[in-house]
Design a protein that fits this description.
single chain; 98 residues; mainly alpha; 3 helices; 0% strand
Length: 98
């Protein structure tokens, strides 16, 4: 998938996160709309977190703000307070520890 913005996830970044983002399950009765591309939705979530803008201001290049905001509770717990994906980075050494 080609990036539409220079701050969207690169292919290398997506390769790391792809397995961490749960794949949506279809309803047993087959009803409902098809799921949006997980990478595009995550890029929309990251845009909101990066800019601090309201969900309703998500640009048109991402899925609808409803889709992006409803997905946030699914992917939000993957992020630590430092803004790094859990399990993808090692903790920096504390220079003040003995």
């Amino acid at each position: 998938m080609a990036r539409t913005n220079t701050r969207d996830l690169t292919d290398a970044q997506w390769a790391i996160l792809d397995d961490l983002i749960p794949k949506p399950e279809r309803r047993e009765d087959g009803r409902g709309r098809p799921w949006k591309d997980r990478r595009a939705v995550l890029n929309g979530v990251l845009w909101v977190l990066r800019t601090g803008a309201p969900w309703g201001d998500v640009p048109k290049r991402y899925p609808s703000y409803q889709n992006v905001s409803q997905t946030f509770p699914t992917v939000g717990p993957l992020w630590s307070y430092e803004g790094r994906a859990r399990g993808t980075c090692t903790e920096p050494e504390d220079p003040w520890s003995p």
